[in-house]
């Protein structure tokens, strides 16, 4: 089925809840141990100015204190640009719980189609 980008954007999660009208379907087996942070999330956190300054100091042979990364941790709690990073694990867990395997979806459709038609509708 072809779906336009604008229609897909309307189906994105609102806040921290998944939209009821969306079925998440994936044929891959579930991960044995899901990553705490996806690569894209790590990249966002590493692109923060405090992270870059910390990395520069490391590259120059210095041993900066871990406290230099405090601005990144503080920004996580209130910066809209980092909201997805803050809630990434919870969002991934919720999506995994809502995920259907294609075989399960086909089985459910077959069960519904096999039911006798209801009278009086």
Give a written overview of the molecule.
The protein is 50% helix and 3% strand. The chain is built from 7 helices and 2 strands, in the order αβαααααβα. The chain has helices at 5-10, 39-46, 49-59, 70-76, 83-86, 88-98, 102-114, and strands at residues 24-25, 99-100. The protein is elongated.
Distance separating the two termini: 29 Å
Q: Based on helices, strands and strand pairing, what is the structural class?
A: mainly alpha
Average pLDDT, rounded to a whole number, is: 83
Poorly predicted spans:
none
| Number of H/I helices | 7
Largest β sheet strand count, sense and barrel closure: 2 strands, parallel
Radius of gyration, in Å, reads 22 Å
Helix proportion: 40-55%
Placed side by side, the strands forming the largest sheet appear as 1-2
Rough shape? Answer: elongated
Beta-strand residue percentage: under 5%
SSE pattern, N- to C-terminal: HEHHHHHEH
Q: Could you tell me the number of beta strands? A: 2
Protein traits:
mainly alpha, 121 residues, two-stranded parallel ribbon, elongated, 7 helices, single chain
Write the layout of secondary structure elements.
Blueprint: H1 5-10, E1 24-25, H2 39-46, H3 49-59, H4 70-76, H5 83-86, H6 88-98, E2 99-100, H7 102-114
Parallel strand pairs: 1-2
């Amino acid at each position: 089925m072809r779906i336009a980008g604008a229609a897909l954007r309307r189906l994105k999660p609102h806040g921290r809840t998944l939209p009821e009208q969306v079925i998440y379907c994936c044929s891959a087996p579930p991960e044995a141990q899901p990553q705490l942070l996806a690569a894209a999330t790590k990249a966002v956190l590493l692109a923060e100015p405090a992270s870059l300054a910390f990395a520069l100091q490391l590259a120059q042979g210095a041993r900066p204190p871990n406290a230099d990364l405090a601005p990144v941790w503080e920004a996580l709690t209130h910066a809209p640009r980092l909201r997805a990073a803050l809630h990434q694990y919870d969002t991934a867990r919720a999506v995994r719980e809502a995920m259907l395997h294609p075989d399960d979806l086909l089985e459910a459709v077959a069960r519904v189609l096999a039911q006798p038609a209801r009278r009086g509708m």
